[in-house]
Specification:
mainly alpha
């Protein structure tokens, strides 16, 4: 379980690095008026033959919103993972029942995960 959780966290971190790279590129490309294309990454219309009725690239505000939301989710998942890791490493045969109840409550509540933010993220998935 810990290996899978750590692997997921590493994958999220890698995605965040990709988002940072896209944001750096987008900041230069999307400063043009909507509909004008100059950067190769966002000029898919010319290179892939996209049809005219397809939507233009995302505006800067939308890209920033997506990137911010991803960063928040990454932070929430990382904090939750660290909490669970600390709980698991502190368990022993000498752990009192009160401590176990507290740990169970913390584990199930996932205090670092904001459901509203997660629902907002799920709505963005096409």
């Amino acid at each position: 379980m810990w290996v899978a959780a750590k692997s997921t966290l590493n994958e999220l971190e890698s995605l965040m690095e990709d988002v940072a790279d896209v944001m750096k590129t987008a900041n230069g490309c999307l400063s043009l008026p909507l509909g004008e294309y100059s950067c190769d990454e966002f000029d898919q219309k010319a290179t892939t033959g996209q049809e005219e009725d397809e939507s233009p690239p995302l505006q800067r505000v939308e890209l920033t919103d997506y990137a911010t939301l991803m960063a928040i989710i990454y932070s929430m998942v990382k904090q939750d993972h660290v909490m669970q890791e600390r709980i698991a490493t502190s368990l022993s045969l000498k752990t009192s029942s009160g401590e176990l109840e507290s740990y169970c409550l913390m584990w199930s509540l996932q205090p670092f995960i904001d459901d509203e933010i997660m629902h907002r993220a799920w709505k963005l998935i096409p």
